[in-house]
Request: fold
Amino acid sequence: MTQKIVNDFSIMIGTVNGSGSSTANTTILRAIFKMGIPVSGKNLFPSNIQGQPTWYTVRVNKDGFLARDDQPHIVIAMNPASYTRDLADVAPGGVFFYADDIKLPINRNDVTVYPMAIKQIIREQKDVPPHLRDLVANMVYVGVLAEMIGIDLERIYDALAFHFKKREKPTMMNFNAVKAGAEWARANLTKSDPFVLEPMDKTNGLIMADGNTAAALGAIYGGLQFAAWYPITPASSLAEALNDYLPMLRKREDGKRTYAVVQAEDELAALGMAIGAGWAGLRAMTSTSGPGLSLMAEFAGLAYYAEVPVVIWDVQRIGPSTGLPTRTSQGDLTFVAHISHGDKQSVILLPSSISECFEFGWQAFDIAERLQMPVFVLSDLDLGMNQWMSKPFEYPNRPMDRGKILREEDLEKLDGNWGRYLDVDDDGIPWRTLPGIMHPKAAYFTRGTGHDEYARYSEDPNVYWRLMQRLKKKYKTVEQYVPRPIVQQVEGAEAGLIFYGSTEPAVEEARARLAAAGLKLSALRIRALPFTEEVPAFIEKHNTVIVIEMNRDGQMCQLLCAAYPALAPKLRSVAYVDGLPASAKWVQEGILQHLSQPASESVQSL
Reply:
């Protein structure tokens, strides 16, 4: 065997959708995490219910780089339909495990091959009922892999106990299959590949979760009172997480619930319900993906124009139309920036990690209520549905910001009437009252049609012009409240990078590789729109600024060019989307392609 490769490789498992492999694959991921080794997992699944090929990748990296790896080092083939493709995908010098009942040729001599007697082993498991054998059989490859690369069986048991919520019978049934696979591998396979795992301590104090769950928890801790939704991949699990955690976290001592979650008849209705709840003074939200967001456009304009706070989570996927429902992208940005007809500008938050999904989950309500307008949070399938390592979530460290609300005592002090759409503080944000405030001055008309400062219907051109100018002023005020970008300024940098969202792991890994080769790059991660002053200042400091994103047309680059036309000649776009999460390889290649000066030989060799 050649020199060991320790804690630095990727694994891909090829199975069939609906075969029960998800439990096995997440068990591998969690067990490695519990060994203290940095790890990430990505599920590539089809949009049908069952029968089509599906893949799961596990990236192990001792240095903590966890973006998608372009080529797996270890492949486990359980599906005859994808067997040939899976074999071709193995990196040279890699490993190919396969179920030995798949009688197809192996035409590569540059990989190590291990057959696995999956069906034989599962038939010998007396505690597995016949109707569960096909499902539990996946645990056999977990055991074989564990024996061959060194996954701690105790950590596998811990992962299974977590998955089955410490129920002994299913935990032991699956763990026995894992042990049987490990024992068979020990007796029948001779290791001749270099890939091994060794315990580390780099996950101490960390948690593992998906972005949709983090977003739901953040919303709950931010005071969520009402959510309406309609099922759509990849956003459904966000609402499902609300239904999981709200009963645990938001009950009064008398058992009554302090929230409502409603499944609407469609996405338009879901946003309409949320806007109604926001108008009534509740912290309200909905969650969807691109096709649902298209249906919501009309109501999004109503909430903007009538100035009603509401939070909208968009877990992005490939489009247009139905697109690829189970593939990831950052393709909704320009649509959301001006969603709805007429002159409209959106507040958009752009989380890049599950910790920011949690943080923006509660911050979005503060911003929406302070500004009295919709706030969009743009996640994506990779961030929302895959498992990520994170520091534990931190409870909100400040009181809720309910914004400008006039209560009975405030109204009593007023000399004359107040104007619902009147700007008295010169920040574009008017004051509002809430239903239930018992005062004769509290009432007003909420209008989605032309209205003056006192909520009176008007089609007067001058009145409309004043209203639109005030809304524009309010959008400028937004900059005080949105999350600021993260800037990493490098002395002597040859270029600057701008990126956002789930591209961060790939960008940071590419930067590290290029820095090791002598190429210095500054970086700015955008976390919100509208842009704040740090963005143009960063662009001005560099001759070349490369904007990296997962869409075809460079949508963030377009928005930056529109916002700062004088700086546009400095901007270069690295935009690529194929439905897969960003990888350091294509980020790196895109950076090198756009640099004006030739790369050094060491950089070119990367």
